[in-house]
């Protein structure tokens, strides 16, 4: 028999891993899977904080029963209504029909939309408290991290923050669940990709949540995905703070769209010229090959972004257009931008990348470099100018 996985006090982890799913939200790749975390507080009064996605763990209810024994479940706290955390609610209600569901007014609107009018709802407001005996809970409304109804639950006794999607990560928990057990290097990339793909659009709301929690001592952070931070939550809090402020590393990502190789050659030329200026962090991606999830992640990581497109039916290349639309939608800020392209008659790539620049408001490092036909040493002069200007901005 394995020992229960204790976070602190009477709080236990009750999550499950999903290694089958290929795409999170049916769009974002999961090469390392994903974990769904929820937590059981086995106090004088008992409470389950969120559940997991339906069908991921066949033995979820048995695990709750194992921890509770023959005691009832008094409360089910819904911090976030999204279905990957409420997949087991119906089974919980079946097994514990007297459980009180805790949420806010916005939560209950969605609850009703999915499961009809339920009895035993306990509506809480920002700052409301609930004593379970040893653990004293407080509810903190953190709307739009990342749905309108999202809230966090703070346990003042052990200073544990149940944070919902905030401070989460992709990647399964392979035996090691807690930050003091894992090798974080394994998760860092997955965590940034989770942030940039899922939470990034609401970066300003993450900052608002930070402001709201200012001065609140936090010893453990319990998100609904990824490692559970019971020893050094500063690591995850620090990273989320940096990313949600859109702070980036002094490096550059070059993303190009090319059908016949001319635009690709320009990308390589620009990269080499930047390297000659002493910049070490340079990454090049072909927009047709690298998934948009990774491209967004790279743009969130680096301060310098260079986008290049061949002209395509008077537009930029469709996949690059999709990326730029997604970036506008996410509202990524404070990047240094270089633009280049290639064309055979009236252009279209560079022209539309310029429109993107105007709309997103990033700093253009130099005049766009646009190559007519095959790139030659003479035509490369404008690309070299762009490269040197970008390197300057990164120093
Ligand atoms: C389907 C298609 C559409 C194109 N549309 C345009 C266009 O609207 N304007 C233009 O100047 N060139 C257009 N071109 C020409 C390419 O943009 C040009 O050959 C460019 O140099 C190709 O770059 P690449 O070698 O990186 O693919 C088009 C080419 C193709 C195959």
Automatic annotation (TrEMBL):
Residues 252-395 form the Flavodoxin-like domain. Pfam families: Flavodoxin_1, ODP. PROSITE patterns: FLAVODOXIN, FLAVODOXIN_LIKE. One of its GO terms (molecular function) is electron transfer activity. It comes from the Bacteria. SMART domains: Lactamase_B. Its cofactor is FMN. Gene3D superfamilies: 3.40.50.360, Ribonuclease Z/Hydroxyacylglutathione hydrolase-like (3.60.15.10). In the N-terminal section; belongs to the zinc metallo-hydrolase group 3 family. This is Flavorubredoxin. It comes from Acetobacteroides hydrogenigenes.
């Amino acid at each position: 028999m394995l020992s229960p996985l204790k976070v602190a006090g009477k709080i236990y982890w009750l999550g499950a891993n999903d290694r089958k799913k290929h795409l999170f939200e049916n769009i974002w790749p999961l090469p390392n899977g994903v974990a769904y975390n929820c937590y059981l507080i086995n106090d004088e009064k008992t409470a389950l904080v969120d559940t997991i996605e339906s069908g991921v763990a066949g033995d979820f209810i048995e695990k709750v029963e194992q921890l509770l024994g023959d005691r009832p479940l008094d409360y089910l706290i819904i911090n976030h209504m999204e279905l990957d955390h409420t997949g087991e609610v119906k089974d919980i209600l079946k097994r514990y029909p007297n459980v009180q569901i805790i949420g806010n007014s916005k939560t209950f609107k969605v609850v009703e939309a999915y499961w009809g009018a339920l009895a035993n709802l306990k509506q809480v407001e920002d700052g409301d408290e609930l004593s379970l005996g040893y653990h004293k809970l407080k509810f903190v409304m953190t709307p739009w991290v990342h749905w309108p109804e999202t809230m966090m639950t703070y346990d003042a006794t052990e200073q544990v923050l149940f944070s919902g999607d905030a401070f989460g990560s992709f990647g399964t928990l392979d035996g090691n669940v807690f930050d003091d057990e894992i090798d974080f290097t394994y998760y860092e990339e997955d965590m940034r990709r989770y942030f940039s793909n899922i939470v990034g659009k609401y970066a300003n709301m993450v900052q608002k949540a930070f402001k709201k929690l200012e001065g609140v001592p936090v010893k453990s952070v319990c998100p609904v995905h990824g490692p559970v931070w019971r020893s050094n939550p500063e690591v995850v809090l620090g990273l989320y703070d940096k990313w949600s402020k859109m702070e980036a590393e002094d490096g550059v990502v070059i993303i190009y769209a090319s059908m016949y190789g001319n635009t690709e050659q320009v990308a390589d030329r620009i990269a080499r010229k930047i390297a000659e200026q002493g910049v070490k962090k340079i990454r090049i991606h072909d927009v047709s090959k690298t998934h948009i999830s990774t491209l967004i992640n790279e743009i969130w990581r680096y301060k310098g972004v260079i986008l290049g497109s061949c002209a395509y039916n008077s537009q930029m290349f469709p996949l690059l257009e999709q990326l730029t639309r997604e970036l506008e939608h996410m509202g990524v800020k404070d990047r240094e931008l270089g633009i280049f392209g290639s064309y055979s008659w009236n252009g279209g790539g560079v022209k539309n990348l310029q429109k993107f620049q105007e709309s997103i408001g990033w700093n253009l490092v130099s005049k766009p470099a646009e190559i007519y036909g095959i790139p030659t040493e003479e035509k490369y002069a404008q690309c070299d100018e762009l490269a040197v200007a970008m390197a300057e901005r990164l120093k």
